[in-house]
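Team,

Forwarding the record for the chain on the shared tracking sheet. I've put the sequence and predicted structure together so nobody has to dig through attachments.
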Amino acid sequence: MASIGGAGGLGPQAGTAQADAWAWGTIYLDPTTLSSLAFNFVMSWSGGAIGAYFISKRDPFWTLSGALAGVIANSAGATEYYPPLAFLVGVIGALGAYGFAVLLEKTYKIDDAVGAVGVHGAGGFIGVLLVGIFIRGYPNGPNDVPITFLGQLLGVALFFILGFVPGFSVSWLF
């Protein structure tokens, strides 16, 4: 639930007496409830587990890893999705994570014993791009800038450049 947090003095009430009160809000600075967020995480967890269960041919490791991939894929838009859509995002995230992990191990012969690159890398990548598809045009932030697929793609490119490239480079040193 890292995409939400308590904040005071932000959003449409900034500069008013209500701004002094802490409120739960999303990364897009709009209000949310913990129950809706928790329900969407349960839906994405379930979708990820079911999707991975079938694609991995009932492998228990990938069933649970798929559930985690579903939650990670859902995180970017967790507060904005309708629950059945959160389920679908979980399924898509798990299928992508499993496919990427198999590609990494079978094709490129890179051992990822716990599937972290597939689950976190591919699941997160897919989740950010799905926000650009399913929440396209939704206004976010204090200036109501709409979410676009191109903007989400740029965000993923920056994550790759600022996160993966330095991390992978440092791993070669040690």
